[in-house]
Amino acid sequence: MPTKRLHTPPYAAEAIQQGDLLEYAQPADVSAFFAHRMANKPRKALVGAWFILYENNDFVYWGSPYFRSLWSGQRVVDSFYKTSQPALEAAFPSYKTLEGFILRQQCRRILEDFTPNNNQFDVFVPKLEDSNICVHCAVGSAFYTILFDHSLNLISIHQSSKT
Questions:
Q1: Three-state SS at 135
Q2: Which of 32, 145, 40 lies closest to 99, judged by CA?
Q3: pTM of the model
Q4: DSSP state, 22?
Q5: Which one, 53, 61, 121, 123, has the greatest CB density within 10 A?
Q6: pLDDT tens track for 17-52
Q7: Consecutive 10-residue runs of the chain (163 residues): their mean pLDDT?
Q8: Are 131 and 150 in contact (CB under 8 A)?
Q9: What burial class does residue 12 get, using C-beta atoms within 10 Å of its C-beta: 0-12 exposed, 13-18 middle, 19+ buried?
Q10: CATH fit for domain 100-161, picks 3.40.50.1910, 3.30.300.30, 3.10.450.630, 3.40.50.10190
C-alpha cells in the first residue's frame, strides 16, 4: 500500500494553483485576507504580493509567492492560507479585484480637492465595516474618514483636524 508523501515548505505555487497541497493551508478569517490584500503594491511579476492561488466553492486559498532562487522561475510559498469563500463573498464582494494600491489611488483622487499640494498619506488604515470599506487616513494636519461601497463608489467623507 503506497504511503502519502508529506510535503514541507516551501510549497510550489503551481501545485496549489492546480488544486494540490490544499490540506496544508492555514485557516484565516476575512479580516486577515482583507488586511493582506490591502498591503499589496503593484507588481510586474506574480511574486512579492498576496495573490489568490486557488478557489473553489468552499475556500479561497491565498499566499505571497516568491521565486525559489535567483535564477529560478518557480514560484513558491512558505505558508498559505484558506478563507471561507461564502464569507468573503458576503463581507468583501470585490475580493478578487480590489487591492490596496487601487484603494490608495481612489483615496488620492478624492483627497485632491482637500489637499491639492499634498496627498501623501501619513496614515492609511483600510478596514471592512458593515458592508462597506472604511479608510482612515491622515494627510498633513488633517484626518479623513472615507467610506466606500465595494465598487469604490464614494459614500461619504469626513474631515477632522489632528490634535
A1: strand
A2: 40
A3: 0.85
A4: G
A5: 53
A6: 999 999 999 999 999 999 999 987 766 665 567 889
A7: 64 92 96 91 68 95 84 83 96 92 90 74 87 89 91 92 62
A8: yes
A9: middle
A10: 3.10.450.630
d(CA 37, CA 92): 11
* Mean pLDDT of the chain, nearest integer: 86
Contact 83, 63 (CB under 8 A): no
> Taking a C-beta distance cutoff of 8 angstroms, is the pair 9, 78 a contact?
yes
Beta strands in the chain (DSSP E): 11-12, 26-27, 51-55, 59-63, 66-67, 75-77, 80-84, 123-129, 132-139, 142-148, 154-161
Three-state secondary structure readout of 99-119: CHHHHHHHHHHHHCCCCCCCC
Contact call for residues 14 and 75 (beta carbons, < 8 A): yes
